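Hi there,

I know you've been waiting on this one. I reran it after we fixed the sequence typo, so this is the corrected version. Both the input and the resulting structure follow.
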Amino acid sequence: MNGVIGGGQVGYNWRVQNWLVGLEADIQGSSEKGSSDLICVGCANDGTNITSILTQKLTWFGTVRGRVGVFVTPSVLLYGTGGLAYGELKTGGSITGNNVNGVPVTVAFPGASSTRVGWTAGVGVEGKIAQNRTAKLEYLYMDLGSASAGPIGTTILVPVRVNAGVSYSSGLTDNILRVGVNYQFGGDPVVARY
């Protein structure tokens, strides 16, 4: 899947000398979507192909993560992060084949929507850009498990064969590159909140 995301995050971080330990939670909307197709050559009654198309869309997702980092300069932090990921996955598709009067028949199979739970891990760099502001570049790998359904019945193969069934199983992993700006609330020389 490919697309653009946008959202917000909150967190609390503790700085002790050159180290930082923290917790973060975020949520974002997503335009990420993708599709795949499968062609069954010569499977229709008239000897033509049957094409199945699976479409999926990640409409939103969030994470709750811990992070640990080290300051490589007084104002630049390198960190690793990981934890829980969750999001809504919408799945749909169609099957096309078996020409009737020269026109292929298309049957849409029922769409499904589910909230998936999985894990995420990544790395990032964050630097102070103003008195109470930081900017960061972060990479996350996210795994929300797999979605499956079926068999989904269809009459695409009539008149000779009455029914056919289509099943699908799709793994949902994502590579996410994010750019963000954070506001830092208060703090003292030993412990700072970001």
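Quick highlight: The CA atoms of residues 114 and 133 lie 37 Å apart.

Best,
R. S.
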